């Protein structure tokens, strides 16, 4: 009888670690939902898409910093942040403000919305906007030639950066995942 106790205790420890890890991750995943909902309403955006971009860009780490100077949850660069601040008539905006999760989510959602509008003439603007968000407009212009001008599947085939194709795929998969849970966010 005593020889089964170590295995039973080990089993309970593993279960406890699994449940605790799942709880911590799900809490981390929902921590910014109210900010995401606020930004989505303000800029008429899909909250599931905003959340998917945050998931991919920073893993919900509001203090994340990128190699090219990206800041915060949505990994906003200075130029995009300045455009947002100007459009919102915010005086004396400084990039350090992007560490604030609310400011970052608003600026990133505005910028993502701007990109979606830029490609609204396509059959699905999301892959174009995500490519622009990830790799920049100059690359998107190069990739959207011929049928890829408006056909998102052809566009994705033309993307010469495997990391950008993977970025689009991962964000779209996570977008679908969050879309199923969007009612829980509202």
Class from helix and strand fractions: mainly alpha
Uncertain residue ranges = none
Return the domain count: 2
CATH topology of the largest domain: Lysozyme
Strand content: under 5%
The separation of the N and C termini measures 52 Å
Going by CATH, the architecture of the largest domain would be Orthogonal Bundle
Folded structure, characterized:
- The protein is an all-alpha fold and 186 residues long.
- The protein folds into two domains: 1-28; 31-185, Lysozyme, CATH 1.10.530.
- It has ten helices and no strands.
- The chain has helices at 5-30, 33-42, 47-58, 78-87, 101-118, 125-135, 137-143, 152-158, 162-180, 182-185.
- The longest helix has 26 residues, at 5-30.
- The radius of gyration is 20 Å and the shape is globular.
Secondary structure layout:
Blueprint lengths: L4 H26 L2 H10 L4 H12 L19 H10 L13 H18 L6 H11 L1 H7 L8 H7 L3 H19 L1 H4 L1
Name the features.
186 residues, mainly alpha, Lysozyme, 2 domains, 67% helix, 0% strand
Overview in brief:
The protein is mainly α. It folds into two domains: 1-28; 31-185, Lysozyme, CATH 1.10.530.
